[in-house]
Records
---
Amino acid sequence: MKAHPLFVHLRGALVRVCLALLLPLTLAACGGGGGGMIASGGVVGTGTAGLVSVGTISALGASRVTVNGWDFATAGASITINGQTATETALKVGMVVTVQGVTQPNGTASAVNIEYHAEVRGVVTGVDTAGLAFTVLGQHVQTNTQTVFDGGTFATLLNQYVEVSGFRSSPGELLATRVEIQPSVTPGVPLTVRGVVMASDLAARTFQVGGQTVDYTQVPVAFLPPALANGTVVDVKGTAVSTGDRLVANAIALVPTTIPGSDGAQVELEGIITDFAGIASFKVNGQAVDGRAATISGVSGAVPADGVKVEVKGKLVQSVVVATTIEIEQTADFSIDGTADAINVSAGTVTVAGQSLRVTGSTQFEDKSAAAVRNFGLDAIRVGDHLLARAARTPKELVATRIERLDPGAPPSSDPSTKAEGIISEFVSVASFKVGSRMVNASSAKFDSGTAASLANGKRVAAEGTLSGDVLMASRVEFTDDGSPPADATVEGAITAFVSPGNFVVAGQPVDASGATYDGGTVADLVNGRRVEVIGTINSASVLVARKVSIEALPAVPTLEVEGRIANFVSAANFTVAGQRVDATKATFMNGTAADLANGRDVTAKGPVVSTVLQAAQIDFHDSGEQEGAEAEGKITNFVSPSNFAVGGRTIDASAATFRHGTVADLANGKNVEVHGTLVGGVLKASTVDFDD
């Protein structure tokens, strides 16, 4: 890795840093403002020549953090999280950070300061399942295969409190790199949003950040930024959303958007291009960039333009980054779920399910197995580990964009991972109760044979969803009371902590299967990682005494998932997607049929690879003019008419819909609805609208 001279990068209010090991410098952050966008960890500060790296944390090590391919030593670094002093353990994969650092003659780098700020913190009020997007505090948040979810999944977002880190592509539009989900919301929890001030009304003391109205009547004039005006970038803090979905601010701070450092400072920044007026003039995270002298690399055939995600390297010249390289970042179009066959740390490769993947400095690593190794990276992978890899195909190879280690018996990522059935106890709220011995959060669940209001101690339910730590984040809850006392409890999941047939754990539930009958296998199949369903009764010691153990079959062949446009189409048995040969003769088709296969169609193909050919078990069409089965859920916003309003950021046309628990006259901003229908272009043509209020 090449050496970089010193550059110190500062952000926020007045900051002073002394670098005693180099030469005494007094550094002060300059004021900022003006138009443009800024992402979490956006670039501001002063300094002489040096190194600042703004981008996503891709991996963590022992006293190390990787950002934009730089492996920074963090010993002695000052770390702040949302304005508060923090330790290294607060840094997480997927956070967008600003790292101020120095390089050594041997090419290594050390961090002097690491700063992270969330883009938005609040409660999710709408979810667009078709678009993989959601709404929080008026911000339309897009997710993709690189988005890190912590504390839940996309399926459990609605009504949850989240903290989002990412990059702005326009006012109110955010690409999430990390979404941290908290299962419960306590009074006084911080609500924050960063972005460009729009529609400022000095008389009413309000303005907009994206789709969020901010009411700052409670902020004394003396504490308002003097330069507050349309086009400035602000950080708004509050604790309540009032009538009309207004965020009541208790503090507002300006966020500078440019690098006011000395000419010659080295800069590396990751983000989304905005304000593109040509290669000589565009912005990344609000910072002006001149790319005329840059070498452009990355995605073959792609060019810089608004909305394109890039990594820019260059030097600061009169407040403009003069780029030497512009790398257009790859989008993952492969998903490989299988075991690690080989690891070569020196070559930077790992083989998963027979597919060789190259690892780069931008590859994200996360250990989601029971081991939960924080400092997880290529050197921590062992042959036989269960890995889920996302990758992009280049003309020469597959490049890993994200690698997760999972438990040996973990199901495919699209399947619910855990199920709990039994009697509710310790009921506090829809977000906190027990089923058997399993804690459950059903804030985002669908309910069968009852509603959230029916939850109570003594009720018998079956809950399924995804584990977040020890909490089951339920996506579905079914009431199973039949009027008679419950006899059985059921748990499903991978075996852990196996000691003997009379002592092991499934989905957090201690199990004694010493007297059980077996289906699909024998007692010899009880090993850590094997998925089972256990039925029995829970004794006074909270142990499930099994009556029956059903042993799930092992997956026959690791699966591969590719996404992209069909090319080289000959027949259903012979075409390619993202360069991968596909045979779809035995596939199940979603949102289309085999007759719809043709060059140019945008599909996802899933299945095992046999002799280098993906034998598709499922083909999903998702580019056609119409997509059946689309849905959106949440609060109505931007209501114009029954044929023009939004839910979860998705435009809805309900002019031909059937209404449940209400009528068309009840459509209004703030109403909670669940919409089902057909996606036509970017509009969801509703067939049914359910009022949830």
Note: Residues 1-49 have pLDDT under 50 and may be disordered.
---
Amino acid sequence: MKYKCLVFDHDDTVVNSTATIHHPCFQAFLNDFYPGERMSLNEYFLVNFDPGFVPMCRERYGMTDEDLIKETRYWQAYVQNHIPTAYPGIREIMEKQKAEGGLVCVVSHSFDYNIRRDYEENGLPAPDAVYGWERPEHQRKPHPFPLEDIMARFDLKPSELLMIDDLKPGYDMAQAVGVDFAAVGWAYDIPEIEEFMRLNSPRYFKTVPELAAWLGNI
């Protein structure tokens, strides 16, 4: 066991959700409330990468706090009836981690109850802790609170955690507290994101088996 705690992002790291759920949902929201506005899948990945979803909504569409609440409720209603599929091989990584006495935690911009539902529906081990979108903004990724709280709750040092994420907010959060970071890129083929992650992360995995092999799972 390389790390006592594996901290997973959720969307596009554990489950294939942006292409199948989140992007179609956001485009439907734009159609309803911002007629004529279009955002491609690749562009949606890029704005979630940097500056992040909330800054993008505020800067590009001028959304107020009230508008963001409306968008969140629209998204909640959509994802209630859409369950993403876990990437093959993720379950085996988590099962081995738990079997060896390790922890599996989640830090995500999805809601806690949706994450737990996705884990159950995909036969994944129940996470030991989840930090989702239901938390106040200053406790969400990229703010360092989730990793700081995991370390406090489970009496862990930064060197005992690995943050696994496909986008820059996870990288920024890990950097802020000195936690090791693994960039993963199996959800997309976008040169701008891959180049940044390869240049700035000490490790980059294009496939789930590559990550599994590095962790010693296969």
Note: The two ends are 12 Å apart (CA to CA).
---
Amino acid sequence: MRSLMALSFLSFLAWAVVASLAIAILLGMSASGHADGDHKRVMILHSVGREFRPWNVYAKDIRAELDRQTRWPIDVQEHSLVAARSGDPRAEELFVEYIKALYVGAPPDLIVSIGAPSAAFFQRRRKDLFPTTPIVFTVLEDRRVQYSNLTENDTVVSARNDFRFLFESYLGIAPDTKIIAIINGNSPNEQFWQGELRRELKPLEDRIEIRWYDKLSYEDTLKQTASLPPHSAIFWYQMVVDAAGVAHEGDRARWSISESRLSPDSTIYFREPTAWEQYSWQIASIVAVILIQAGLISVLLREHRRRQLAEVQARQRMAELAHVNRFSTAGELTASIAHEINQPLGSIMTNAETANAILKSPTPDIAELKDIVNDILLDDRRAAEVIRRMRSLLKKAPFELKNIDLNDLVRETVEFLSSLAVGRKFELVSLTTQNALPILGDRIQLQQVILNLVVNGIDAMRDTPGENRIISVRTSRVENSAQLSVSDRGSGIPEDKLEKVFAPFFTSKAEGMGMGLSIAHTIIEAHHGLISAKNRDHGGATFRIKLPLVGVG
């Protein structure tokens, strides 16, 4: 379905011309002494209401031109001839009395009449109101002007609608049109135009079906036009008052005529510019900004993916290095581990031989056999626990964060290192807090950090006398962090080397690889923690680790 809108007066009238006429009239009155030279009163009378389109648009344009072109202050009073909606003469009489009372003693210098009902009102009531005041009749059609009743103070700016020419032009553009629905209201002015439309369009009834909707309410009109068949068009003339007596504001209908279908000699007036024509540079700027942002976002996303991939790869390499480092450390623990395993194995052998001798006795002591069996079980569990810890240390597992208690982790690691303390002849002291220190961490990785720090402490105390060969492992809570410190009483770290101890391949040991502390630093960073080193006041060094507590605001 296509839709069509009648040519409006805006196509024929130039409001700058109307304003210029009004100012010329005011100038003429000033020159003849009929008006005050520094203050002008202009009355604008709307036909059916100030907010009814399209008349309100025309009135605003005229007033804007008056303000732009005039050289004096203008006092503009706008009124609405509401009585024109129904044509009730009693309402008109009351309106006349109202206007008289409003302008008593101070008549307007100029009257601008907007629309045909307003013009007809002034021509009927001119003698009763302002017989000598100049009037500009505008926004009306020639057929609505009573030229015989015009006075020498009247100026008319009008247009003429040729409905038949308009319809024939449209049918030339859209020849497949079968039905045209004409929308027109039911006020006195609209009833006049209904008759004019019927008269002018009668010769076209053999070419198209014309449907009239002047006897319906606005809602019923919308419902019926919504169900029009294909190849139909809507001619919206005006709808001030519908058949139900309800007033409606609005003048717009939908167009669906492509400019490519117009004849080459067509002239298009007041074409609404496209969004691109109106805001081309703004749209271009916005599109450019969006494209730049999209480019930046894509670059950032690519860099983010590359960073994530690099972090994953770095974590994998760190895990590989940590695994190698654990094997290297395990080599240093071999003697101590062998000693710790040999002790329960030797006890198992002794108990087994004793049990065998008792069983050969004519009266074996069952109670003693039970004690021997219990001893064997305890030694077996002890050896199994040593093996379990070693397997846990050496196993190759992915980096996995779990909820653990730092105190439990320290106690388990110290217990594992107890045999190393005996074999290397140093004292291992651990002091843990009474309250739990919940953290999110990888148990094996953190055990390796503690193990590396303890082994480094042992190496640092190589030349320390026996009674001072002490390594302390302590835990504490500092604000929202769990703190772990490992201290030794060795030779300490040279002051110029403190900032480099965590760098890869840095070592003070002739046989060292320089990877232990670097791996420890990487592991702690992966746990969102901090590791630092400093020398003690009375000899030795302290390594301090801070890890975020879980569930602490």
Note: The radius of gyration is 51 Å.
---
Amino acid sequence: MAYLLGVDTGGTYTDAVILDEGTDQVLAFAKALTSRPNLAVGVGAAIDAVLADAGVNGAEIAMVSLSTTLATNALVEGQGGRIALVAIGFDETDLGRAGLTEALRGDPVIRLAGGHNHAGGEAAMLDLAALRVFLQEPDNGVTGFAVAASFATRNPAHEIAARDLIREATGKPVSCSHELSQALGGPKRALTAVLNARLIGMLDRLITACEMHLATLGIAARLMVVRGDGALVSADLAREKPIETILSGPAASIAGASWLSGETDALVSDIGGTTTDICLLRDGRPKIDPQGARVGPFRTMVEAVAMRTTGLGGDSEVHVIDGLGGGLWLGPRRVMPVSLAAHHHPELVHAALDRGLAQDIPATDGGQFVLPLWADMPTGLDARERTIADRLSAGPMRLGLAVQSRMENPALGRMIGRGLVILAGVTPSDASHALGLVDAWDAEAAEKALTLFARRRTGAGARVAESGQALARQIVDQLTVQTVNCLLEAGFAEDDLNWPEPAALARHPLSVAGLDRHQGVVRMQMSLGVPVIGLGASAATYYRAVGDRLGTRMVLPEHGGVANAIGAVVGQVRVHATGTVTSAGEGVFSVHLPDGPMTFADRNQALGALEGALRSQTEARARASGVEDIRFTVSRDIAEAEIENRRMFIEATLRVEASGRPRIAHDA
């Protein structure tokens, strides 16, 4: 008998599930709070609980697979380590494209002369002087480096030289753009490298936490990680390219949704603590985004499921809309629910809330708290950040005590962005506790925080809500409104008519009237034409109202709360590599390989050499992920032109994919 262990680490919960490989049955599932900064606590608690519930010994586990939303959440919330971008052969205009400025968030950029042309020839000599100067700085707070050179996919020599220098001087992780994508488009490749470098430390900590706990339980099975396209890769490969795990959790949830529900055509909506992820399931398979994964404001070169990710979840921050009309808005930032903060720090939270409720005019921080996430005092802080960190050295405190002037607000924002601290405040999870829909944390604290929040004033001077209970209902209703908008937008975007501006259409008055089933001189009716599969721990709490509003069947499968963990172990390993052959003239064919270009006089020899190199590359990566029975798929896209009645070769792109199920322990 062999058992499969799936683990999913989200922003709020870490889920674990045990599947019986022989019967395809879920034997047990468990949840534990995701623990920060020490992820090992939450991972260990979930694994221990599910093994105990299933009555399974660690030695009986044949394979372990991990999915996670940590990378996705980090990009949506603007979190991650401080990095430096080494830009080779780019000018200022290039660095302002593809969202690079926003992604860098003020982190340093070291511009170097160098780079190559479209044929792989050196455009300028590489000058590493500025890089050497930067690497000699004693404490710049940089946790990793991104290296991007112009046309590095045609010749990576300059990226490799910079990478080797950084590793020798610092020992810190380096992300080279040519190792993440073979597509042209330097700024977009640089963006992908920047995001990858920002995520390396975070994913490494998660994988290490999982490996360490598996070792303590005597689980010797191979650890796999779900990639953003739903494929499995080895933990070592995921460590090198954490950017490929953006949308890992959502991709696993799609596989889990199909496996659990049996539906082949549906919109899958997965609500977590931080995000709502929506994807169309057609003929049992999710669509792959041909333009690369988009998460939050960033369009990357990562191949992933065509997922629409929105900063809307059970732990989304609640905002009062400015202006006379008032109203609420949720997200995109995740905060710790007050009910959860009180679960961890009851004396602090209840004392602060009680003081606030005793005052006629509530404090401006309105029951918000700041919680430090560091194990050791962080480095690389500026003066204002250091002041806030010193105040928090004794532990969590009220926001109004942690930040004591308006000038310190940006400093706190930067610390939140770096994942050094987290805010606690009112969320939909608190509303659910106050309404009796959920009973996981401290409902009394949730009720107090909601009552305090309700006393805030709108632009018209009225209270936000009459009571904490009334506010809780408003928050849940607002979550329904925003979820409906997300699903309707996805419906317009995926519809065969190719509607323009799906986001505007989803919020158009005609769409709203259709959802209202308006009956007047004009009769209006609108609904989704496919069912919705609702996933996530809170889907059963919120999504029935969403299905009613959209006039469609809402499928809430059993074990839908751990669909990500289930999907993590039902997938296959798939690795691919892409390369190009170009021609500078008749009888000259350049093959652009990871180690540099090679030239051939014969077209077929060039194509054969590239295919052979890509096969070797994908085979090695597939075997490293435990696949023994490898299936290869080769696709060729050859561009030719007819000139004076002759076919002239211009360029060819080859893609080789190696796939198969990873070998599990009992087959050894």
Note: The mean pLDDT is 89.
